[in-house]
Amino acid sequence: MNEQPMNRTDPELLISRIVDGEATPTDWAAFRAQAERDASLWRELAEAQRAQAELSMEVASALSVVNAVDVPVHTEMVRRMSDRFRQVGMWGGWLAAACVGLMWAGGQRTGGSGTGQEAGLVSGLTPASALQAYLDQGQTTGRVIGELPEKLLIRAEPVTDADGTSITGYNIVYVRQIMERTLVKDLYRFGGADEAGQPRAVRVDLRPAGRPM
Amino acid sequence: MDGQRRQQVEGTETGTLMLDVAAAVRGDADAVQRVWMENRRWVAAVILAHKPREAELEDLLQDVAMTFVRTIGKLRDQATLKPWLRTVAINAARAAGRTTKRRRRVMGPRVEDVEPGLHGERAETSGAAEAVAQGEQAGRLTRLAATLPDGYREPLILKCVRGMSYRQIGELMGLPETTIETRIARGRKMLRELASQERQPITGDAGQEGVR
């Protein structure tokens, strides 16, 4: 392909600029001057304008389908929401595993029998009182900051009576949000994606206010 | 962004578009819709310039729309929206081209794949082929333009999209304005030469009026 720029007074370039409506008064003056010496340039200009009009009509006709193509925003939003729910489900699993791990670790730290501690803590407690005990003890040790008042709704479905004719209530699946504090050695955040499209962890260097960077 | 600065940015067409792009990147569904509608015409023109003849423009544009809505949130630099969309469009068109080549290898050419001259011969015995031949005539210049090298074809087609200037085409393609105008001028000359070699030249009575 010839990438050499054309001479500004090349009649082909001038015709093209005129056809495209990009010609300056200087371009027009240059074209008229050349056309005075070679009148066939007027015919070439007319042919070029006619060809451009024909091509533009054909392209416009081909592009007439464009208005029928909208972005599937709604479909995409539903897909993203489903992904989020799946992720919550996945993290819910990890949360459960983490709780089991913490209980085991707590048992080890106390130096006593893990099984005995676990049995002593859990037996005889309802889920609500066990949770309250966790919150109270966590706040005493500084691990738990508190529970957020908002709960995240995951799923709601009606519960019907035995006949299935009337709704007696709703089954609600939700996430409780409990803020905890912990000490870590390093801090990372997800910043962009690597070449495989996977989230990339970037180390964060936070410094106390007033310290030089 | 403070109120005064926002007003200044919104005061220009480009500024409004940039705000829309920023909102679309953040996941604003209405902004995603607006940015798409603002750009889909030229995106379709890019696909038209690169797609194989038998691929449906509407299908490919739908593919690009899907990619756009799924990945706009990952766009880091809003200024790169148009070059990015162009790349997505070209990739969609080329993928269709690869599919077509595989199909031809396996199944042989379809009636619309064969050369225009053959359409004429078949038209005597086949109504379907006749319709194809008429379609060929109706889109004669776009068919001829499809034989031009990529670098000439794309700017020439883009220039047919309402309101696209040399500068805007240059921004899309990542080329200087002077290169774009040179390519369009050369592409246009090649197209006229190709057309003049066909049986029916593009110049008619109307083209001769008042030119001498």
Give start-end ranges of low-pLDDT stretches of chain A.
Answer: 96-120
For CATH, the homologous superfamily of the largest domain in chain B is named as RNA polymerase sigma factor, region 2, helix turn helix motif
Mean pLDDT of chain B: 76
Strand content of chain B: under 5%
Note the run of SSEs of chain A as H and E.
HHHHHHEEEEEE
Structural class per helix/strand content of chain A?
A: alpha+beta
State the major sheet of chain B: none
Walkthrough of the structure:
The complex is a heterodimer of chains A (213) and B (212). Chain A has helices spanning 11-19, 25-37, 40-62, 73-109, 114-122, 127-141; strands spanning 144-147, 152-160, 167-175, 178-180, 188-193, 199-203. Chain A is α+β, with helices and mostly antiparallel strands and 213 residues long. Among the domains of chain A are: 11-65; 72-123. In chain A, strands 1-4 form a two-stranded antiparallel ribbon. In chain A, strands 2-3 form a two-stranded antiparallel ribbon. A two-stranded antiparallel ribbon of chain A has the order 5-6. Chain A is elongated and about 110 Å long. Residues 96-120 of chain A have low confidence and may be disordered. Chain B is mainly α. In chain B, 73% of the residues lie in helices and 0% in strands. Chain B has twelve helices and no strands. Chain B has helices at residues 3-10, 13-26, 29-50, 57-71, 81-107, 116-123, 127-138, 140-145, 150-158, 166-173, 177-197, 205-208. The longest helix of chain B is centred in the middle third of the chain and has 27 residues, at 81-107. Chains A and B meet through helix 1, helix 3 and helix 4 of A and helix 3, helix 4, helix 8, helix 9 and helix 11 of B.
